[in-house]
Write a structure and sequence with these properties.
Length: 315
């Protein structure tokens, strides 16, 4: 059997997964329920590994890791994002990288809709008022009939776009590889930003998408629009977003992801009254967790059977 290592299951998710426990009965794997803590700590765990199942995006795989692990053949990522992996280095060192696309699509799309509704309806503000003994009213807006701009039409973006249609929103979209067969109206990015009442990001973080929505792009958004991000924090220029929200050029934002996570105590975003913030938890439901972990394991099985699936490629 190959040397299989799970180096970073903290907080533990795969350790209690029914799929993992069943698979481990027939397939030995070295399992760590703590974080490696450093690159040296990671190397100490995986130096002789042939297969690594990576759980945490905080565990990074730069060129130096691949160079120091000559036996490594497969890196199976739990999750869709691969921004913690130097994919070019993996290719140079003959390491196949797989991920678990689509398994969290329903969960993240629902969370995106929840954030949009929570901002539009000012749910947090009204809740806090009622809890304090007030009776705030007349602070909400409807989303029915408004325009939803979806940036990125992968599995999550497509599902969210359909949820938007389901509550009566007009959907327009921009994506890197538009496909008219999807049935959405595709527009240029500047047009989307200028027309949309709600803009939602569904892009993978890469060198091409870091800072994708900068100060110039945010300035194009409609006054009073809402911005939703359940993708990755660095896709938006956080300083520019803070300015737009502080000056109320945007009505608000619903954010599940940030430049630095966990969000530091006292961060400027936490001082705003027009944001709804969640803890990078959009895709973490019991259903999505188990589906993703099961697929991460299946990717290992498929690779060992000579039929690798869900291979991550360079953009």
């Amino acid at each position: 059997m190959p040397n299989i290592v799970i180096p970073d299951d903290y907080p533990a998710v795969i350790g209690s997964s029914p799929s993992f426990l069943k698979w481990r009965e027939s397939t030995p794997a070295t399992y760590f329920d703590t974080l490696p803590g450093s690159e040296d700590g990671l190397l100490a765990r995986i130096r002789d590994a042939e297969i690594v199942i990576n759980i945490r995006s905080s565990t990074r795989f730069p060129e130096s890791i691949f160079a120091a692990c000559p036996k490594l053949k497969l890196l199976s990522l739990w999750g869709t994002g691969a921004d913690n992996v130097d994919l070019a280095a993996a290719k140079r060192h003959g390491v196949t990288v797989t991920n678990t696309p689509g398994v969290s699509a329903a969960s993240i799309a629902e969370h995106s809709l929840m954030l949009a509704l929570a901002v539009a309806r000012r749910v947090v503000d009204i809740h806090n008022g009622v809890m304090a003994g007030d009776w705030p009213r007349g602070r909400s807006v409807e989303l029915q009939g408004k325009t939803l701009g979806v940036i990125g039409l992968g599995a999550i973006g497509r599902r969210f776009a359909r949820l938007g249609q389901g509550i009566g929103m007009r959907v327009i979209a921009w994506t890197m590889h538009p496909n008219p067969a999807l049935g959405f109206e595709f527009v240029e990015l500047d047009d989307l930003l200028g027309r949309s009442d709600v803009v939602s990001l569904h892009l993978r973080l890469s060198p091409q998408t870091a800072g994708f929505l900068g100060r110039d792009q945010l300035a194009l958004m409609k006054p009073g629009a809402i911005l939703i991000n359940t993708a990755r924090g660095p896709i938006i220029d956080e300083a520019a977003l803070l300015d737009a929200l502080s000056e109320h050029r945007l009505a608000g934002a619903g954010l599940d992801v940030f430049d630095v996570e966990p969000l530091p105590a006292g961060h400027p975003l936490t001082k705003l009254d027009n944001v709804v913030l969640t803890s990078h938890c959009a895709g973490i439901t019991p259903e999505a967790l188990e589906a993703g972990l099961a697929l991460a394991i299946k990717n290992v099985v498929d690779f060992l059977n000579g039929n690798p699936m869900n291979v991550v490629t360079l953009q």
